[in-house]
Amino acid sequence: MKLVSRLRPSGRSALILACAAVLAIGITSIATGAASDFVRIGKRNAAPGTTAIVGSTAGFATRQSNNTNGDGGAASYGCRAATGKEACLFVLNHSGGQVFQFSSNGGTNGGRILVTPPSGKSAKDVSPFTTNATGVATGLNADQVDGQNASDIIAASKPPFASVNANGTTAGSRGLAQSNAVQHTGTGTYTVQFASDISKCAYSATETTTDDAGAAAVQLVTGKTDTIQVVTRSGGGADGTGPTAPADKPFHLVVNC
């Protein structure tokens, strides 16, 4: 019993030991808090300031992955920055190399850029992104511009025309109505119907022969916005004078809008 009593600390000694233990625990807590709070896996973590992760490696400083097959993303970011403020995701390469790379393994669609228009606007009023680079983007193939394919845009840039034989048949054309576009309505008189409104355009017709060549006149058919009347004439007498009556002649008609 005396040995046990000797091993038991006095009341004063026990108090000193208890205080030392509390102080040690407090110092550990302060040291841990000074570095950072623990990241809780599977929980929502909140931080009042910026959290920085700076690595020193030849590879990626951080990596995020999801091993679930068939579903589950690797990372999701969100913010509430207003227009003109910092972007939700900002990436800067300080050494002039590539800024980003997206890779899809076995997919048929590389991804999407979805923009919700502001109130009173539609998808036609917003752009998916802007860039100050003006070089050619290798590999991009714009399928349509303003709803038109490249072939449609090229065709629209070329003026409509008709190459018409003396009997009213066509030898070539662009932009005519689908069927029976050219009618031979009388001697030296033809009507040519186009597939669109040409009422605000300029017209030019020329006889395509040097045999007794005369003049060709054009005007829009009254009450029509897509049909032109062409009148071709003979060249007159042998000396170039005399009447220039209507005569069947081949001609070219060009419409410039």
Explain what you see.
Mean pLDDT is 82; it is low at 1-9 and 12-35. The longest helix is centred in the first third of the chain and has 25 residues, at 11-35. This protein starts with a helix and ends with a strand. The chain has helices at residues 2-7, 11-35, 150-157; strands at 161-164, 170-174, 182-186, 189-193, 202-207, 213-220, 227-234, 251-256. Strand 1 (161-164) and strand 2 form a beta hairpin. It is an alpha+beta fold and 257 residues long.
Structural class: alpha+beta
What is the number of helical segments per DSSP (H or I, 4+ residues)? 3
Placed side by side, the strands forming the largest sheet appear as 2-1-8-5
Query: What value does the average pLDDT take?
Result: 82
Strand content: 15-25%
- Which geometry do the CA atoms define? rod-shaped
The topology string of helices and strands comes to HHHEEEEEEEE
Helicity level, as a percent range?
10-25%
Give the C-alpha Rg: 42 Å
Number of strands: 8
Task: Describe the structure in brief.
The protein has 257 residues and is α+β, with helices and mostly antiparallel strands. The chain contains 3 helices and 8 strands; from the N terminus they run αααββββββββ. The longest helix is centred in the N-terminal third of the chain and has 25 residues, at 11-35.
Please give a handful of descriptors for the protein shown.
single chain, 257 residues, alpha+beta, four-stranded antiparallel β-sheet, 3 helices, 8 strands, 15% helix, 18% strand, disordered N terminus
